[in-house]
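USER: My hope is that you can spare some time for a protein that puzzles me. I am handing you a single protein, as its sequence and its fold in token form. Walk me, if you will, through where the backbone shape changes along the chain. The protein I mean follows directly.
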Amino acid sequence: MLKIKFKKIHLEAKEPFKKYVGDVGWDLFAVEDKVLYANVITQVFTGICLRMPEGYYCEIHTRSSHGGLGIRNHLGIIDGGYCGEITVLMNSPKEYSIAKGDKIAQLIFKKRISIKFVEVEEGEEFISDRGTNGFGSTGK
């Protein structure tokens, strides 16, 4: 089992939580009352810091219950070396109130892989059935 260290930097902060053992996402909670005004990106604070083991990072994702209302948070990447407060950037199509203690997003933890880019000459290894066909190339 992976152990993630966390620190509360606000008296009202809550430990990330998941209800069911098999769930992937860990709920994050607001430490303040906040109003999301229509189509305005708003920063919501969680009052916690994380320290992940070497080789791991996490992503901040929208909760499905918010998604159904059109409320989104911007996908956030929390690098393993970041140890500041976790905040969530949220946006709503209409005014929406968040109360202190509300679930606002979820964390999904992932293993980081090492990458090395290797430059190749023009055309080398860049031939496929798809070619350069991009947006909409597979039809409707």
Residues 11 and 47 are 8 Å apart (CA to CA). The beta strands are 5-8, 26-29, 34-36, 42-51, 56-61, 72-73, 76-78, 85-91, 96-98, 103-111. The chain has a mean pLDDT of 92.
